[in-house]
């Protein structure tokens, strides 16, 4: 979740070369406009150009500059939820576009929408809606084609300068030198190789991707050999005269790199193009096949994996694949999109394309099954992180499954078993849509369809699609009767509890939920049982049942017995609420703080907000100022998560607490303190809730802002000043240590300091 107000622009891991005049020109064009579309062919560097431009103007946007990568997005219906998720919103509303626009109305921020060309119409429609509904949002779009909107300012991103330069080294040559020195640390442009480097850059027309691909081979060939080999690809460029010159040049560069690969490396390049959003070594060695393997074989021996691994190493060495920074214990890899697309085109022309796509689907179908075994277990942290990282691949696998008419039940089963992920990642609407599409495909009476109907009904109720949810549940009941089920399934009772709640009968809803728990304890998977227990607790709190503490204790003990972290965090709040009702404020605070600590292992802003409101209840009597500040902090987090049922439950109490605080503090003072709480960042809100915010109020935050630090850099600088190591900061902020290293270096550079001690003194100064 990106709750930091400064945005999410990634750290530059390599230098940005040249294009000073082009950046200045683009800034001047964008100043009076609200939409700037950067056009150009794949590989010209539109993304890097957009990010550099954004970095130079982001101080004009107090609500941040936000990058939204669309290359892995295959459906226009997911565009608004994807942008919303980058901004920290959860897609739990029926109209995600309207939800996004409501979030943007009063904000002054910059959106960078990268790779719009394959979603041209949906992008144009949504951008037009955003610009018409807001006054201070500006957008940079990158696309191979203009969007065609009123007010659109188009800027064709030029290639790097590659003609003779007065200094003897033009922009393309400078890029070649920097990237070649990464492959061969001893490489420098000298009088001996200058002519050859200039020849290479001129032949590649200064296209950054092509230059980088060429430079990566400096470890294998000298520049004269590279130049001569490029010349030999002129025939490859000449075979496709219908392509624009720059497209032929990029294709020639890709073809040239392809020819340098071994047969296994070429084969794997093609196969790995089925992944979107990256992949792990395990995924690559499971999906990939050596080029000598028969299509109907399923090798699982060590020799097979070693062959694929060797080819993977070769592709990394040739810079076809790059390792990307990622959370978690396992390395992740990905191809640049033009390189991936090149491999996809090659794969599509082979007879085994369908076979590889099916292996990809099967791999992520197996991953989806972990939702059953790992959600309510001590493996839930890894399950959540892995599933979230593979979200783009899961979408790809589901898309393929919907096209596999021979096995329609796989799409439905996969979408259904992922329900815990859809709920916990804020993707309820997306999950609902996948299941509905799969139900349309699998119309024959079967158990898979029965389960899908019930699950879709539950998600429908959560989304507020009450009429659709009722119809789905009715179809589910008719189907289980037709199939001759011996008894009512647990999930039927679970869905029925939602329906009865919508009827206004909370006592009846609790009774149905309790029947589901009793029936499921020995028969259903633990994750489903835990979800029903959570619902029981919520209903019990709403009606102030005398069994509330008993049910809350049962839920907590159940999660502890299974070693679950996320579900335990969910169980801690209702028990904390019970303790608060009983007047045991110490226990209430302890339980809710423990829940927040557990939620920090996941991306759960909504549930953190629930707990912060609970802490405000506990502080209201003894420290009304702290209670008001906590309410403000919770309010700032609610904008990142829409959870109607949970919000309704806690706000019933919070409304009474707020009235008491207004009487105690006065309206003006109350509003001022709440506003202070709303201005806190996510990390600061958590620190306030956990009681670890001592001294932060006196820290001169404006000083950091004036120095040009982003909001994330402000947070890290403050933690540096508190004496935390980079590893400790990474743990606290739930980001990688490498990311912290890069941020600290940027902070020192911006401030002109050499040591962490100087940062601390500077922040503490007048």
Explain the overall architecture:
- Helix 12 (263-272) crosses helix 14 and helix 13 crosses helix 14.
- The chain starts with 19 loop residues before the first helix and ends with a helix.
- It is mainly alpha-helical.
- Among the domains are: 20-156, Rossmann fold, CATH 3.40.50; 171-259; 261-351, Arc Repressor Mutant, subunit A (Orthogonal Bundle); 562-692; 701-764, Winged helix-like DNA-binding domain superfamily/Winged helix DNA-binding domain (Arc Repressor Mutant, subunit A).
- The strands form 2 sheets. The protein has a 5-stranded parallel β-sheet, sandwiched between helices. A 3-stranded antiparallel β-sheet has the order 6-8-7.
- Helix content is 63%, strand content 4%.
Helix and strand topology:
Elements: H1 20-30, E1 35-39, H2 46-57, E2 65-69, H3 79-86, H4 96-104, E3 110-114, H5 120-133, E4 138-143, E5 152-156, H6 171-183, H7 194-203, H8 208-215, H9 223-232, H10 234-238, H11 245-260, H12 263-272, E6 279-280, H13 281-287, H14 302-317, E7 322-324, E8 332-334, H15 337-348, H16 353-374, H17 380-389, H18 391-403, H19 408-417, H20 419-424, H21 428-441, H22 447-463, H23 466-483, H24 490-502, H25 506-520, H26 526-542, H27 548-562, H28 566-582, H29 585-599, H30 605-619, H31 624-638, H32 644-665, H33 667-678, H34 682-690, H35 701-706, H36 711-721, H37 726-733, H38 737-751, H39 756-764
Parallel strand pairs: 1-4, 1-5, 2-3, 3-4
Antiparallel strand pairs: 6-8, 7-8
Helix pairs in contact: 3-4, 6-8, 7-9, 8-11, 12-14, 12-15, 13-14, 16-18, 16-19, 18-19, 19-21, 19-22, 21-22, 22-23, 22-24, 23-24, 24-25, 25-26, 26-27, 26-28, 27-28, 28-29, 28-30, 29-30, 30-31, 30-32, 30-34, 31-32, 31-33, 31-34, 32-33, 36-38, 36-39, 37-38
